[in-house]
Amino acid sequence: MARDETVVGGGRFDTGRDGYPAMRKYAGQWPNRVWAIEGCQGMGRHIANRLLADGEQVVDVPPKLSARARVFATGRGRNTDATDAHCIALVGTRMAGLRPVVNDEQLALLRILVDWRRSLGEDHTWMVSHLHQLLLEPIPGGARN
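Below the sequence we write its predicted structure tokens.
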């Protein structure tokens, strides 16, 4: 989509081994492109990271904004791939201040450590609860408070 919201192209690319190179080749005809990806902290993370690794510019479109645009789109707000892509492109074109996605290796490492710490905490809580349950089983009527 151009800055004046004119649709300049479109296509459907699978997520298999051949889909990504085909998409990149197709998009190569627009040298000054910015990719608008919905949900770069969730489902869109992998494609955004792959585009970043290839030197592309990517902005994160929050799902709430694309959902709002979808309500006003033709098709009565139904969720289809074509409508989603159009609404994400509209938001990417219209909205100033969308967060550019950057490849921050330190942030990625911190996320891994935080996830690991959370997992350790959950495991510890489960083990203590399970041990408590096992220790109470031999006591008739359970333990008094």
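Residues 104-145 form one domain.
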